[in-house]
Amino acid sequence: MNIEIRKKDDEKAVFVVDGVDDTFINTIRRICLVEIPTLAIEDVNIYKNDAKMFDEVLAHRLGLIPIVTEAGAYNLPEECDCESGCSKCSVSFLLKEKGPKIVYSKDLKSDDPDVKPVYDTIPIVRLREGEEVELEAIAQLGLGKEHAKWQATTTCGYKYYPKITIDESKLTDLEEYVEECPRNVLAIENDELVVVDIENCSTCRTCQRLSAKDDNAIQVGFEENKYIFKIETDGSLTPLEVLTIACDILSEKADNIINFMNEEE
User: Fold this and answer.
1) Per-residue pLDDT tens for 101-152?
2) Is 129 helix (H, G, I), strand (E, B) or coil?
3) Which of 28, 51, 52, 119 has its CA 20 to 30 A from that of 185?
């Protein structure tokens, strides 16, 4: 396997993977989507709510706030020794505000300074003069397959690595090909039509259809066992952390299968 990183920061990553098949790359994608544990607000105890927002709606909005998650710092509730939540599997947030004001995610006060909302400016509720809200929100680890609020990734997918073959001897009106390409993949250099941004190609085959008049001088396809993988997170974990955990989970699954087969023997 060969991996080349095209872009990487705290929320997005784009890289090219060569030497794997559809099964492997799609398995990594699915694990990233639904099997990465992250923190999200699960239980909300509302002591006072004078706002014009129903308690259920308020709790729903709190649940969708992405929370900074430190991998390995907390246990999944079903794997914890406690019966009803403890400091090893849950984090408590307190919210007590009085209007007039807009209550934002930064107003949630955590009992763990390392665990906080990813963004400070997510609006929760608008309070008018004299209105108050007081509640406790309990965050727990969960998986995306249980609820979307636990999905670490907002975008996670891949595409086949494009391949464009050009027969220069048959081409006419090169400028037409450049103008018709919707993603500016083609250009004219030294009186020849060349591919200048192959990874931006969506394999729409506009140029291939246009080349029908030139005896099908352009063929669009893809490289075998080569993919462009893109991942974007909600900020609770970095793309590198998500991918690292995904690979660990895949490795554990493979070990479980091997151990099972050995036991059967």
Assistant:
1) 999 999 999 999 999 999 999 999 999 999 999 999 999 999 999 999 999 9
2) coil
3) 28
On whether the CB atoms of residues 160 and 223 are closer than 8 A, the answer is yes
Q: Please tell me the distance from the alpha carbon of residue 232 to that of residue 9, in angstroms, as a whole number.
A: 10
Which two three-digit tokens encode residue 189? 């250099």
Q: Give the residue among 258, 261, 237, 175 at the shortest CA–CA distance from 40.
A: 237
Sheet holding 218-233, edge to edge: 2-8, 12-18, 218-233, 153-166
* pTM, full prediction: 0.87
Report the alpha-carbon distance of residue 214 to residue 207 in Å, rounded.
11
CA distance 11 to 231: 8
Pick the closest to residue 77 from 93, 62, 90 (CA basis): 90
DSSP β-bridge partners for residue 104: 123
Could you tell me if 6 and 199 are in contact, meaning their C-beta atoms sit under 8 angstroms apart? yes
Residues 93 and 110 sit within 8 Å (Cβ to Cβ)? yes
